[in-house]
Amino acid sequence: MTTPLRFHRRFLDSLPGDADARSVSRQVHGALWSRVMPTAVASPRMLAWSRSLAVELGIEARMESQDAATVLGGNATWDGMEPYAANYGGHQFGNWAGQLGDGRAITLGELEGPDGRVHELQLKGAGPTPYSRRADGRAVLRSSIREFLCSEAMHALGVPTTRALSLIATGDAVVRDMFYNGNAKAEPGAIVCRVAPSFLRFGNFELPSSRGDHALLQQLTDFAIAQFFPQLGAPSRSVYEALMHEVAVRTARLIAQWQAVGFVHGVMNTDNMSLLGLTIDYGPYGWVDNFDFGWTPNTTDAQHKRYAFGNQPGVGMWNVARLCDALLPLIGDDERSGESALSAYESAYADEARAQFSKKLGIRIGDDAGDGELVQRLFAWLQKHGVDMAIFFRSLAQVLRMDELRELPSCVRAAFYGEPAKDAVEDGLSWLRQWRMRARSEASDVELAVTSLDRANPTFVLRNWLAQEAIDAASAGDASKIHRLQRVLQRPYDEQSGEDDLAQKRPDWAKDKPGCSALSCSS
Fold this sequence. Notes:
This protein is of the alpha+beta class. The protein folds into 3 domains: 7-198, no CATH class; 203-360, no CATH class; 366-456, no CATH class. It has helices spanning 10-14, 51-57, 60-63, 67-72, 141-157, 202-210, 214-228, 237-261, 312-327, 335-361, 369-385, 389-401, 410-413, 422-442, 446-456, 464-475, 480-489; strands at residues 7-8, 33-35, 45-49, 84-86, 89-92, 95-99, 105-112, 118-124, 139-140, 163-176, 185-196, 263-264, 286-287. The strands form 4 sheets. Strands 1, 3, 7, 8, 9, 10 and 11 form a 7-stranded antiparallel β-sheet that branches. Strands 2-4 form a two-stranded antiparallel sheet. The chain has a two-stranded antiparallel ribbon with strand order 5-6.
């Protein structure tokens, strides 16, 4: 007999809901959520699930039962679940988009785990809600596999993120135009159960503020402070300012960690920014293969590259500024409060980036001009010669252990896409000698320093081509590649026997293949 689950009603009891119970697409005013039930699917089937997360939630036994796929596929609920969809707005590609809301996400409930922490369980792809606009509220297998794998991969890397409990095949077909070019086709449908302390976004606050509903804005902000930032104190003007500061710092630290592991979100709209500083909404994301600050995985962003790898820190700050704008009515429209939060963002980003790259390089990077010059020289070299980011940084431990550097080591050559040019070899060798001399001089024990480098630079990241191989296999009925990637990505910093092929740089066939080189928001 399974243990009864304890669900909370924090969001439902504390904040006003929509009086209209229909799932008809509409503008919803004066409410922060709408009740909605998932739409049943033909034949829900469990493709994969996260055992570590299930243990954390206290539902491991339930996940092994036959009804798990039924509930997490949207065809039933466990006792205590009261599904709803949240109402929010957002800036998309720099423009205010008005009401958006959970168009294909439905929260099942807020589950208390064995340790007393409360987790929001949310199905993505479970059917239409009042916020679906002209969409069907469904998700396809390809995007669901990518979200499931990347959520858990980021968690294993130590990057703040929402989690993924399960991946369910629905047995239904979903029609999508992958690149919005008139070539719509039916694809297998799927549903992911996402988990987080909260899915509150910047856009939750922007919408009531944009509508002049300051009472609703204050109610939501007071709720957020009480539930997720109680250390700030009772709501007041100074605490609202402190909230701006706290969210700015969390966001800055998060994006510095994205940069350190080579993760590109792809669609950093304000409705995709977590109030808690988590990576949220895995859509057209990508992992940097050849180092390129100008790379974006999102086809919608291909021309303007607003959300390119090198632009993420600046966009994060712009998004924080929009949140501060939304909260200004609570502090008397004093813009100095927002300016203070943005200064905090800049400082926090600089500090976290230095900390992250100090670990990745095994040296103490401070404010010294020489430190900045050393790092910038590296970035310029990686960018100019298209060096694979993950493989290069992972090679540094081997380089540090070498007695001398007479030529560019083979482990570094392996990071090039093609034979390196003469200047690439010369400049790279020059940089490595300078770096190695400094790293060894700062190390009290070289072997300990080698171990530290390996703990800071992953061997395994979820490269797009790896995800696409798993998608292709699963679409043909073989989920084994999903399971293999899931297993290996749980230990990204470890050498894993027999898994070397998952640590290789992007193969030639994947350079221009859809799903490997470019993706869309279509899911």
